[in-house]
Design brief:
By secondary structure, the protein is an alpha/beta fold. The chain is built from nine helices and nine strands. It has an eight-stranded parallel barrel with strand order 1-2-4-5-6-7-8-9, surrounded by seven helices. Helix 8 links the parallel strand 8 and strand 9. The longest helix has 16 residues. It is globular, with a radius of gyration of 18 Å. The model has no long low-confidence stretch (mean pLDDT 96).
């Protein structure tokens, strides 16, 4: 077995114990002492709300596009665990300095709101910008974040294997490359590493994949099952130290 442990981002919190992207799910992940939390945000009527899907129906009753809803109306819709859709500020306050927080800009027109929110929060609380990563498949919004909040590290999301590998990270002055486990590629990993990027992979829920990824030099994973990463890392540490 490889001697490399993996950084763990709890994907949308610990969603096996509470509805994804809720304060309850995030709280359960923090109880496991994960290294990081990943959440998704949308601009809903000028507020950044923490939600993954663009349309209701999977977890919340209805069929509306969330971008066409009033933010107060969306926040009042209960999720299966009984929690409501939180604001980014509420998540920032809950996480505090207990873990890194990866904030994925899921919907359009989030960058400026994100910059305002993170600047306000760090000024109000003294939190460190180094605790946060802002990521997106929308690289234009990441470029806006570079202009508006350069202090926050940027994670470039890609779902396939780009022709130019990790080159898109350069104009974004990115910190990390976030790749899909279904498209993991040695050349892509090597190119990201050569560029000084962290290699994080999503969404990894099989213990066997953890072994394969660690052997390839991946730095960390996003997972719906943070316990399997905790167990994997514990086995690695035991192998290294015998305790």
């Amino acid at each position: 077995m490889t001697s490399t442990t993996l950084f763990c981002f709890a994907h949308r919190g610990y969603q096996q114990r509470a509805s994804e992207n809720t304060l309850q799910a995030i709280g359960h992940a923090l109880e496991l002492n994960v290294g990081g939390i990943e959440i998704d945000v949308w601009n809903i009527g000028g507020q950044l709300l923490v939600k993954h899907d663009r349309r209701l129906g999977r977890l919340i009753a209805g069929s509306e596009l969330i971008t066409e809803m009033h933010p107060d109306a969306l926040k009042e819709r209960p999720l299966p665990c009984g929690n409501k859709v939180p604001t980014l500020r509420e998540v920032l306050e809950l996480v505090g300095n207990s873990a890194q927080l990866n904030i994925e800009l899921k919907g359009p027109n989030c960058a400026a709101l994100f910059a305002d929110e993170i600047h306000t929060f760090t000024q109000d609380t003294g939190a460190s910008y180094e605790q946060y990563i802002v990521s997106s498949f929308d690289h234009r919004q990441l470029y806006q974040c570079l202009q508006l909040a350069p202090e926050v590290r940027r994670g470039v999301l890609v779902s396939g294997v780009p022709l130019d590998l990790a080159a898109c990270s350069a104009p974004l002055k990115a910190y990390s490359l976030h790749t899909n486990v279904d498209f993991i590629n040695a050349d892509l990993i090597a190119d990201a590493k050569q560029r000084g990027l962290k290699n994080y992979v999503f969404t990894v829920n099989d213990p066997n994949d953890l072994i394969l990824l660690a052997a390839q030099g991946i730095d960390g994973v996003f997972t719906d099952e943070p316990q399997i990463v905790s167990d994997f890392n514990a086995r690695i540490e035991f192998t290294k130290t015998g305790t």
